[in-house]
TIGR03936 family radical SAM-associated protein (Pseudoflavonifractor intestinihominis), 223 residues
Amino acid sequence: MRNSNRLRFTKAGRAKYISHLDLMRTFQRAFLRAGIEITHTEGFNPHAFVSIPLPLSVGFSSQCEVLEFELRGGAELSEVPGRMNAVLPEGITVQKCYEAVQPVKALTYVNYIVTLEYENGAPFGAETAIRDLLSRESLVVVKKSKKAKSGQVEVDLIPLIAKFTVEGRRDTIALDLIIRAQNPGLNPELIVSAIREHCPEASPDYVAFHRKDVLDAQFQPWE
């Protein structure tokens, strides 16, 4: 995208259940309502062109979502957050607007906080069992794949996990994960699935996924 601009925004509360396509439409309408002119697609039915490099799974919250667009007029970059927040729905908040610095291909890792919740308290030994599981040399799981003839493919999670910590509390176990973002990326739901399969005693009653940051190859914030 020429002269690409980016928004950094949060997605929380009820907004975390907005699908990717609906989120795109929400931003397209918000730019229009805010009186901010951006580049439109060409063709019979042109619409405001926006792109989210790393779509977030429905039900996940985030404090580091990024949306790309091309500002054409109607506002300065510094004015965009305030004007957008005035028209965006509750739970979606633009933190800043800036000119793109790094290409999308430089987005290498994602930092997730995955909270495993237990109604009757975290099981004894669960924290250690999960830490040992993620410390293995290999951890192969099966996931769905539209490209595979069988509809499934095996994936080794360990090479896709760059760093992790496991912290147990009374009723929860928190996983602080830095995992691959793309080519290939890792959905943290697969890590929870592996825990359920290999450490059934540590299976949580509820799970909360929160995206904390997007990082480059040097583990620095991707801008």
Observations:
- The radius of gyration is 20 Å.
- Residues 161 and 179 are 4 Å apart (CA to CA).
- The longest strand covers residues 206-215.
